[in-house]
Amino acid sequence: MIKDHFTVAVVGCGIVGGGTAKILHEQASDIRNRTGIDFRLKYVCDIRFDNARALGLPESLFVTDYKTVCGDPEVDVVVELIGGKTLAKSVIEEALKSGKSVVTANKALLAAHGTELFGLARENGAAVAFEASCVGGVPIIRTLYDGLLANNINSFIGIINGTCNYILSAMISEKKDYDTVLKEAQKAGLAEADPTLDVTGHDSAHKLAILSSLAFSTDTDLSAIPVEGIDRLDLFDINMADEMGYTVKLLAIAQKTEDGISLCVRPSFIKKDHPLAWVSGSFNAVSVYANNLGHSMYYGQGAGSLPTASAVVSDIISLALGYKETRFDTLRIWPDKNKRLPQLPLDRYSSRYYLRLDVEDKTGVLAQVTHILGKNKIGITEAVQKDPQPQRPVSLVLTTHRTTEAAVRQAAGELRRIPEISKVITLSIVDEAE
Amino acid sequence: MIKDHFTVAVVGCGIVGGGTAKILHEQASDIRNRTGIDFRLKYVCDIRFDNARALGLPESLFVTDYKTVCGDPEVDVVVELIGGKTLAKSVIEEALKSGKSVVTANKALLAAHGTELFGLARENGAAVAFEASCVGGVPIIRTLYDGLLANNINSFIGIINGTCNYILSAMISEKKDYDTVLKEAQKAGLAEADPTLDVTGHDSAHKLAILSSLAFSTDTDLSAIPVEGIDRLDLFDINMADEMGYTVKLLAIAQKTEDGISLCVRPSFIKKDHPLAWVSGSFNAVSVYANNLGHSMYYGQGAGSLPTASAVVSDIISLALGYKETRFDTLRIWPDKNKRLPQLPLDRYSSRYYLRLDVEDKTGVLAQVTHILGKNKIGITEAVQKDPQPQRPVSLVLTTHRTTEAAVRQAAGELRRIPEISKVITLSIVDEAE
Fold first, then answer.
1. Based on C-alpha coordinates, what's the Rg of chain A?
2. DSSP run (H or E) holding A71
3. For A375-433, what is each residue's pLDDT tens digit?
4. How distant is the Cα of B377 from the closest Cα of chain A, in angstroms?
5. What is the ipTM of this complex?
6. Residue B183 annotated as catalytic
7. Which residues, other chains included, contact B227 with Cβ-Cβ below 8 Å and sequence gap of 6+?
8. Catalytic amino acids of A?
9. Which residues in chain A have Cβ-Cβ distances shorter than 8 Å to B144?
10. Model-level pTM greater than 0.80?
């Protein structure tokens, strides 16, 4: 079953595609020494070859039509690294229909159409491998389909967008506001010119959809994931977090309960003694809570050419070693093999909360605040009053006992109706390092 | 090739064996739902069944003779969880000779006889899986034989003994000396009654031998690994580390150079911004530096019944999914398939260093110290003088630029010959978070 050679076509020679082709071209003998298999890069398919040439890849590999690649019977695997959801989808479909397995890093496509593509792969006796779609080269997908197979996964929490984590880390360490740090990150090439997909949390949501579908063996509905980004975060709350022993991180959170799964992406407070609080700069990490193993964490670069290509090439190797037969065909953890578990509304999300109330004039207001929180059964664990800063009202900062999003939203709505309260900010708190 | 059922015998029903039997007995349907395979626990083999009974395992599984187990043609895998190097070795040999694959957590045995046992497995068409031998249920072995296969691994650093990390964490946070914390850990069941194997660093050395043999595809010589434990650490140096922005950890360090591999276990300073510095209590973690992926880290419980059993059961599942054929038979990374790379003497080890000199009377001594360091080409990055504590001489604390163990040993020897210097402590410093 295991052949002594394996022929690869890379479609899309950008950042990750270029890195993949470079590894296959330059490190082929190292990889052969480890695996016993000769990986042959036969095609680099793109419409422009500036990057391919800059990387020193031989012209003889270059083709412009992906149908040439998909139609070549010698090709064992088509590596889709174009990105986007249109041409990339056509390439993957064409490859699968030709019975070729596919490796992809395309999180947006998989989050939207993964189940459909996995089904198509099966119809055609092929497989889709996608380690590179989440957390770059860190083997988190393998952890879910292999390393933790002896476990029921109860929940996981990820810092899975490097741009957001870089911006938040800089806001904390340099005490600069969001707009300033974003501009600096863009100048340094650490944020896209249009950073929307990253900073609004939607890139994290794509990865959350993929990871949760594997962790919980379910099809997930991307559009039903509540997403909040870092673009409306106030430096004041980030500084308060720091003062109170927390760090603000953009977290992708997945919890399984008896009623279904609860998924969300949101900036949250996380206790400084939780290992995720230590993850700084552009690094990513995922903390997994499993019934037998307990808490484990996987950390590394979530983006970049060679780190992501490391995952792509690992998938190519796995395919050569029988991933299709031993994992993709056999395991029942893939979303196309499972019916969809209910995705609970955010109202059901349960955690501790941070509340910041900007209060014009405190007299008598505190009694109203306590009354509203009490009525909504929200217990207070800590209260801090910050003296007015220039042009600011008094800020009353509260942290709560565990409660639900529904209760907090209800209370926040009522608080906003008090005339002396000009602003109500709520952020959830993650503090269990199980 | 993949059967719909797989029959398991657990030999040794202690902490990990009990956990393994419990998972297979109680969670069989969950595992079948994920894997599509029916795992059948047929035997629990031991000479006493107190633990097995306490766990509610059915009496019908109990046998006392491992030859019954190894001779039963229905059994697909023998799980050796006896520990030690005598009976455990016989059980594994018997199983392999019967053509049955083996899962084991036995790090001492594998570190000493792994290459031989892998060879025996191959002769008999069987395999040995050993995820549970290092870092409990954290899939670090899989990371080396699967997730990072697209990389050359340059180095790795591990905190791979929970007892030592617990003791060091408590010494730092509670400012208590080694003996006091050890006694408390023993009372709390977090250190063995005879803690020698842990605190002298030899348990870490076993794991280092196993991890480095896979990371560098080489047979390693356990007896050639320089090992230093935490049992002679002074609270003074631990506090100094803290003051200077470091944490003291017992590190297992592996570096690959052009000349060979450099392995050691030793307490070291590690910069507080390195993720390994955050690993506290009984948690373990391994930082891996790979040519494509860069720095990645794997974190979790390194011991305990269910966390370790999680790795054992994952290995059983992998065997059912074809681990023998797709990984053990094919990959060329196993020590029995490779010749031994040279293991460099500790003299060649290169890092920054911390030096503490206890000086009776400072006048004129500093000039001699600077002279000796200069002569040995050791540059100083920081110098701190601590005022005498009760019954203590002045402590002169220095950190150095990168140098070699040979230079530091030579200098320390010369420094010890200065009559006014009563003590010289040297500890290496790890500060690169690549």
1. 24
2. helix A66-71
3. 999 999 999 988 766 667 889 999 999 999 999 999 999 999 999 999 999 999 998 65
4. 36
5. 0.96
6. no
7. B200, B201, B202, B204, B205, B264, B265, B266
8. 207
9. none
10. yes
